[in-house]
From TrEMBL:
Function: Involved in the gluconeogenesis. Catalyzes stereospecifically the conversion of dihydroxyacetone phosphate (DHAP) to D-glyceraldehyde-3-phosphate (G3P).
InterPro entries named among the record's database cross-references: Aldolase_TIM, TIM_sf, TrioseP_Isoase_bac/euk, Triosephosphate_isomerase, Triosephosphate_isomerase_AS
GO CC annotation, single: cytosol
Protein name: Triosephosphate isomerase
C-alpha cells in the first residue's frame, strides 16, 4: 500500500504571523490523524518560523521552489541547502505557474530536481497539460515529455524520494476539477511511463498526487481511485477548516 500524501501549496499568501497561525491550527488537527503524510509549503520568508512552530508535529515543511545552484551570484534565488537549513524536508518543483509565468523548461526543472535530491530534499514534481493541449489531443505527448525529461538521469534509489503531482493546468484555480475518471486515467498513464523509464517496482511504489481545485467536496471521490495517492492543494489549503477536512479524507485507496 502506498501511504497517501496531502500537501498544501500556499503560493504567495500569508504573512509570517498568518502562516504561524495557520500552521498551529493544522498541527493541532494533525496530531490525531495517522492515515497519511501531511506537508505544507509556505512562502520563503515564513519557512524558518513555521518550522519552529511545527516542532514535534507530524506535519512536514516544503519550499515552493529552489535553484539548481548551491551558491553564487544568483540574486533572488534560494539554494536547496538553504531550504534544508530553514527546516524543510521537501520542495515543490515544476509547478505549472513556474513553467508558464517564469518560463521554466523541462531541462531546468530536471536540473533543479537533481540538485534538490543531491542536497537531501524530497521532491514534489509537478506535471500537467493545458486545456489547449488536452483539446488538441496532445495531453499524452506533453505528459510523456514532462516525465521523461524531468526525471532524466535519476536513479531508482533517488526515485524513492520523488512524489509526482499531476495538475491539469485548466483545473488550477479555476474552480474546475478533472473528474475522478479523468484524473485516474492520467495517473494510470503516468505510472505506466514511470514503469517504462525505470521499472515496475519503482512505478508501483511511486506516489502520484492529484492537484487542481481539490476541495472538501471532491477529495473523497478522488482519493477512492486506485492510482490517486493524495492531493496537492492550492486555495483550500489556505483555510484551516477546509484543509483539515481534506486531511481527514474518507476515500479508500
Amino acid at each position: 500500500m502506498r501511504r497517501p500524501v496531502i500537501a498544501g501549496n500556499w503560493k504567495m499568501h500569508k504573512t509570517i504571523a498568518e502562516a504561524v497561525e495557520l500552521a498551529g491550527a493544522l498541527k493541532q488537527a494533525a496530531a490525531g490523524i495517522d492515515h497519511a503524510d501531511f506537508i505544507i509549503a509556505p512562502v520563503f520568508t515564513a519557512l524558518a518560523t513555521v518550522a519552529a512552530e511545527l516542532q514535534g508535529s507530524n506535519l512536514k515543511l516544503s519550499g515552493q521552489n529552489c535553484s539548481d545552484k548551491s551558491s553564487g551570484a544568483f540574486t533572488g534565488e534560494v539554494a536547496p541547502q538553504m531550504l534544508l537549513d530553514a527546516g524543510c524536508s521537501h520542495v515543490i518543483l515544476g509547478h505549472s505557474e513556474r513553467r508558464q509565468l517564469f518560463g521554466e523548461s523541462n531541462d531546468l526543472i530536471n536540473a533543479k530536481i537533481r540538485a534538490a535530491l543531491t542536497a537531501g530534499l524530497r521532491v514534489i514534481f509537478c506535471i500537467g497539460e493545458t486545456l489547449a493541449e488536452r483539446e488538441t489531443g496532445r495531453m499524452y505527448d506533453v505528459l510523456s515529455e514532462q516525465v521523461t525529461q524531468g526525471l532524466a538521469g535519476l536513479s531508482e534509489e533517488q526515485m524513492d524520494r520523488v512524489i509526482v503531482a499531476y495538475e491539469p493546468v485548466w483545473a488550477i484555480g479555476t474552480g474546475k476539477t478533472a473528474t475522478s475518471d479523468q484524473a485516474e486515467e492520467a495517473h494510470s498513464f503516468v505510472r505506466g511511463l514511470i514503469a517504462g523509464q525505470f521499472n515496475l517496482q519503482v512505478s508501483e511504489q511511486l506516489r502520484i498526487l492529484y492537484g487542481g481545485s481539490v476541495k472538501p467536496g471532491n477529495v473523497d471521490e478522488l482519493m477512492a481511485r486506485d492510482n490517486i495517492d493524495g492531493a496537492l492543494v492550492g486555495g483550500a489549503s489556505l483555510n484551516a477548516d477546509d484543509f483539515i477536512r481534506i486531511m481527514n479524507f474518507n476515500g479508500t485507496n
